[in-house]
Design a protein that fits this description.
The chain is an alpha/beta fold and 138 residues long. The protein has helices at residues 13-25, 62-75, 87-90, 96-113, 130-133, and strands spanning 2-7, 31-36, 50-53, 79-84, 116-122. The chain has a five-stranded parallel β-sheet.
């Protein structure tokens, strides 16, 4: 399952995502991973949550990002939830067509591996494709 938080920069999506990840830690039997484009949130994410800084890896398109996620899951089958902060900042180029494709790919990964995704997007919500908008939660 994919849970998407989308909106303009500065609306508090990252703070909400970190709070959600920290809250879920108490109730999960598996591992939680928090993916971000830098380490600025390392002191806010609970120490038992694996923080992955993607600035250390060259992820220039959605294919590389999907492969990156598959690699994480293949190395740790106990990952139950993956929190991705600022997907458009992690992937250098992500037009709407590719955004739809990456969401479809992540949904398949989610179903095949029993991993739940929580993702933030800094964007104009009205410009999102309909198939991506339906993934949004409040």
């Amino acid at each position: 399952m994919i849970n998407l938080f989308a909106g303009a920069k500065g609306e508090g999506k990252t703070r909400k995502l970190i709070g959600l990840a920290n809250d879920h830690l108490a109730n999960t039997t598996g591992h939680i991973v928090f993916v971000d484009d830098d380490k600025r949130n390392m002191h806010h994410v609970h120490r038992d949550i694996r923080l992955v800084d993607t600035s250390e890896y060259p992820l220039s398109n959605y294919r590389e990002f999907v492969a990156f996620v598959c690699g994480m899951i293949s190395q740790n089958s106990d990952i139950q939830e993956i929190f991705i902060d600022g997907l458009c900042g992690i992937i250098e180029e992500l037009p709407n067509d590719d955004l739809s494709t990456v969401m479809t790919s992540l949904n398949k990964i989610s179903n095949d591996n029993n991993v739940e995704f929580f993702i933030t997007l800094n964007c104009d919500v009205d410009a999102l494709p309909p198939d991506v908008k339906k993934l949004m939660i409040s």
